[in-house]
Amino acid sequence: MEFRSVGVVGAGVMGVGVAQDLAHRGHDVVLIDVSDAVLERSRKELKTGLRTVALFKKVAVDSRDVMSRVNFTVDYDALANVDFVVENVVEKWDVKKDVYARLDAICRPDVIFAANTSAIPITKIGSATKRPAQVVGMHFMNPVPMKPMVEMIRGFHTSPATLDAGKRFLAEMGKQCVIVEDSPGFVSNRVLMLTINEAAFLVQDRVAQPADVDRIFKTCFEHKMGPLETADLIGLDTILYSIEVLYENFNDDKYRPCPLLKKMVDAGLWGRKSGRGFFSYE
């Protein structure tokens, strides 16, 4: 195993999924977030995720062994000896910029930073570090342990050696990748976020109820999930932040966030993680 110890920054849905997958495959993981309360919640979500993997993949999972490999902490100094970092913090530039400054100061000079971002350009993230050649985008899909493919993004300064290392890192997680060039939203979210945003407009305009919007996609196009169910799974806050990033970067009205989406986020209807979004999970 080339990357024995991995730092996972941000213990939200994506961070927990990355940490779970890494620990399950034998890596030592340092999982960092801003408060003990967030980490306690992530600990419970990680245990639940392990049960889900055991159920759906029909594999034996020693939860105690996997959990023992994860160091839940708020202390960035714990990243001093990691071999690789996956960053998963909120899709807000001011937050990410500060995180990368801290990572730069603490991590070894040879360590690669993988940004698990939905829309923020990798070149911009690289500019926040002193090692832009060692910054690469890794857009994991949710739920991370169940998805075999990752969208890997080459920033302007990302070196070929970093891309090769990224491929080896993903191979250790049992995942393949598609490499794309840097652009806000990349391939997946430039298409997906527009689709979800337009689906929200359809609900706002009373063209159809959420269940009917999704039913059309699932029945007519044989998609496993409709756009609004997908939005709830990702998190409506993440959807809104991503749309705002696209709108800011392209200056194109087609990325104008749906007011209903904004209202739902303000009301705390963030999807599965809050128990209610376009659908109820309570």
From TrEMBL:
Residue stretches making up the 3-hydroxyacyl-CoA dehydrogenase NAD binding domain: 6-182
Residue stretches making up the 3-hydroxyacyl-CoA dehydrogenase C-terminal domain: 185-281
Descriptive protein name: 3-hydroxyacyl-CoA dehydrogenase NAD-binding domain-containing protein
Domain of life: Bacteria
PANTHER family: 3-HYDROXYACYL-COA DEHYDROGENASE FAMILY PROTEIN, 3-HYDROXYBUTYRYL-COA DEHYDROGENASE
Keywords from the UniProt entry: Oxidoreductase
